[in-house]
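ok new one. same drill as before - structure tokens go in, u give me an amino acid for every spot. 187 of them this time. try not to just spam alanines like last time pls lmao
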């Protein structure tokens, strides 16, 4: 009589209702135990067990693949609320607490130190470019930048407009002021 092949849940030693965090923790513990480089088992047996663990974890860690596997195996996907393990276990000494930052999606992870450094350099470059723009604007003698900082009077190119608006009492109120446009010479 042939023995029924172990399900992926049995390979990892978890229940079909296990959370993704529990599946991940079980895989980590078992992979440390059966990794061919760290175990005392013969290399062929350790490799076979480690490949079985990887296969099971590859299916159960992906929500879509896990759902398809559960449908094929006949497991129910109805969510049932269960009490926390910490409430159902009797305290038998110091227990290992799971960190609260277990990530379900491999794309949703904390930034590595290299990525943080790259973002820091990017921000530093942005600040340096901004400082360079301000410095160049001040040293070139840009009339808007220098007059705004040093002289509260408007620049010279605004004088004709101000003169027309102040010297318009003899003109009817609905007529537009005459603006003198500079002439452009053809080369």
């Amino acid at each position: 009589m042939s023995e029924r092949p172990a399900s992926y849940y049995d390979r990892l030693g978890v229940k079909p209702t296990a959370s993704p965090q529990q599946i991940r923790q079980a895989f980590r513990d078992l992979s440390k135990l059966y990794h061919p480089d760290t175990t005392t088992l013969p290399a062929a047996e350790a490799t076979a067990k480690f490949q079985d663990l990887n296969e099971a974890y590859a299916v159960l860690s992906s929500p879509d693949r896990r759902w398809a596997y559960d449908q094929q195996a006949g497991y129910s996907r109805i969510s049932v609320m269960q009490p926390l393990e910490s409430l159902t276990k009797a305290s038998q000494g110091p227990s290992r607490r799971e960190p609260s930052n277990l990530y379900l999606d491999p794309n949703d992870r904390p930034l590595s130190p290299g990525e943080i450094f790259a973002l820091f350099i990017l921000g530093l470059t942005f600040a340096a470019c901004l400082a360079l723009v301000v410095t160049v604007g001040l040293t070139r003698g840009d009339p808007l930048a220098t007059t705004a900082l040093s002289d509260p009077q408007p620049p010279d190119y605004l004088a004709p407009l101000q003169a027309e608006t102040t010297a318009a009492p003899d003109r009817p109120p609905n007529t537009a002021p005459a603006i003198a446009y500079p002439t452009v010479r053809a080369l």
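DSSP finds eight helices and no strands in the chain. and btw Residues 92 and 126 are 55 Å apart (CA to CA).
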